[in-house]
Amino acid sequence: QVQLVENGGGLVQPGGSLRLSCAAPGPTFTMYPMGWFRQGPGKDREFVAAVSWNDQNTYYGDSVKGRLTISRDGAKNTVNLQMNSLKPEDTAVYYCVAARPKSPELYYSDHYYENWGQGTQVTVSS
């Protein structure tokens, strides 16, 4: 069976950047809204970002607006998360997620997504 696979996590200093990628094999995920959640140490799972199936609409959690950018590359079957100006509080395991299209489109809710990757660790520390 196909599944979501994240890459790009690692250690970065505060103010630095990382780019996460999620492999989302087609055709299963071609028409799926996709996104990223994260869970930091001692924290609840948190919505990070989501993108519509056609890459026309994006959504962001309040804590990452202006610093993180989600996009998808249909040709490569990937969803990316460009992370800039990283802060220690961004330290978390980041999960790529995909949702079976349905209404309402609750992109911010973890319950909306049926498919989850294994996660990739992002550590922001000096």
Describe this structure in words.
The chain is mostly beta strands. The protein contains no helices and 11 strands. Strands 2, 4, 5, 6, 9, 10 and 11 form a 7-stranded mixed β-sheet that branches. Strand 5 and strand 6 (58-60) form a beta hairpin. The chain is globular and about 40 Å long. The mean pLDDT is 94.
Summary keywords:
single chain, mainly beta, globular, 126 residues, four-stranded antiparallel sheet, 11 strands
Assign an overall shape.
globular
On the 0 to 100 scale, the average pLDDT is 94
Q: What does the oligomeric state look like here?
A: single chain
Give start-end ranges of low-pLDDT stretches.
none
Instruction: Please bin the fraction of helical residues.
Output: under 10%
Distance between the termini: 40 Å
Question: Care to count the β-strands?
Answer: 11
Whole-angstrom Rg = 14 Å
How many helices in DSSP terms? 0
Strand content: 35-45%
SSE run = EEEEEEEEEEE
Q: What structural category arises from helix and sheet content?
A: mainly beta
Main β sheet profile: 7 strands, mixed
Q: Outline of this structure?
A:
Helices cover 0% and strands 42% of the residues.
SSE map:
Layout: E1 5-7, E2 10-12, E3 18-23, E4 34-39, E5 46-51, E6 58-60, E7 68-73, E8 78-83, E9 92-98, E10 115-116, E11 120-124
Parallel strand pairs: 2-11
Antiparallel strand pairs: 1-3, 3-8, 4-5, 4-9, 5-6, 7-8, 9-10, 9-11
